[in-house]
Amino acid sequence: MTTDLHPARLRTRTSASGTGLFRAFWRWHFYAAFLVAPVLLVLAGTGLIYLFRFQLEPLLHADLMEVSAPSADSIRQPYANQLAAVERSFPDATVLSMTEPRSEERSTVFSLALPDESTRDVFVSPYGAEVLGSLDPDTTLSGRAVRLHSELMAGVWGERMIELAACWAIVMAITGYYLFFKGRRARARRPRSLRSRHARFGLAGGIGLLFLLVSGLPWTGFWGEQAQRLATGQGSSLWSLDHGAVSDPASTLDESLPHSHASDVPWAQGASPVPRSSRPSGEPGERSIANVDTAVAVAAEAGLRHPMTVALPVAGDGVFSVIGFAFDAPSDERTVHVDQYGGGVVSTYGFEDYPTLAKVVAQGIGLHEGRSLGAWSMAGSALLCLLVIASCVTGPLMWWQRRPSGSLAAPRGRLPLRGSPALLAGLVALGVLLPFFGLSVLVVLLLDLLVVRRVPWLAARLNAS
């Protein structure tokens, strides 16, 4: 992945619109794949698991997640009774939230924080208020998939690795389309080759991949944070401007739930500040007169959709934060904060209140997660994940079949930047918009100039001479 800025060499090369640019893009596409393909395989595989998590987890944990009514006239117990059963079974834990059953055959889920700072999901039969059991949400199949998808289970370093790979995946997709249209004639001579299959997979999935990459950037620790800071400085926001969020006045809405339940919080409301309940004057020891059932009833009256997730008060002036179901429609995202004493609405915040940028990002995330257009969206997202996996597998296989024994067989070619101002401007713009890409390009070019070209063995192996 080198550039040729020397005028004498430029005169001996083909023009930017000819073979020189094709080989240069091929080289960049080739080397980007070494970084991108393994990460994209992880992201696509975990994305598939996350996409079908509501179908997979009940199959794996049917004893906890599936229930049946004892009789035709069985009555579902109030959530307060179910909460009391959980508190009796886990007296040392703090109950953080309750999620309503997704159907008549599903259990109620309570999320707990244990004294050792671990978390548990406790499953309760809504018919007998019976605790069915518990599990660590981060150790379930979908919980592990979420952690791999977001940080490769490696914390900040894993998060940065994904962001770097995403930047190079954008470059790989763009160069891939250039190679596809410029290499049509060569592929036409061997339409059934692995190269042709790889090109077709890339053609079908490239645009979708670009959308997934761009819509996923707001989640990233570096790019997302910098974009939010820039947007806030211009008087807007990628996130919400809610005046209140959760029960705990020291935290925000997304911090009130265990790691694997962060998706229960509308993305645009995740970093919202906190409302407070109004404790009755003159009665500092007054207990809450509202309960989780009150909060659900008040939220339903306010128009929230079932099944709801309720973040419970964990402080004397906290609130019940009720998050409405909006899985299939980001425009329905809404949270109602209910006073734990009087049971009144402290504040509400929803999609209609989001800044314009937050609305755009929320819709993009709905599409990214395959949920905004119902079954069509899920089917399209699943197909896209399969196309990405196919591209990541056929690319290395194609290289392995074509490479000479003992050689990396990297394509030769340098970007003719001096002879193509538009190309240079585009590369600089991409480096500015994607800082991780820009910094990594500088590192690669410096290594090429100072190390690879000066070591004949390396230059020969990497076709950099």
Task: Please name the defining characteristics of this protein.
elongated; disordered N terminus; SHC Adaptor Protein; eight-stranded antiparallel β-sheet; 465 residues; alpha+beta; 49% helix
Shape: elongated
What is the averaged pLDDT score? 81
Q: How much helix, percentage-wise, in residues?
A: 40-55%
What summary fits the major beta sheet?
8 strands, antiparallel
Give the termini separation: 12 Å
What is the strand content? 5-15%
Radius of gyration: 27 Å
**Order of helix and strand elements from N to C terminus:** EHHHHHEEEEHHHHHHEEEEHHEHHH
Poorly predicted regions are: 2-18, 242-251
Number of strands: 10
Number of discrete domains: 3
* Biggest sheet strand line-up: 5-4-3-2-6-7-8-9
Summed up, the helix count is: 16
Structural class: alpha+beta
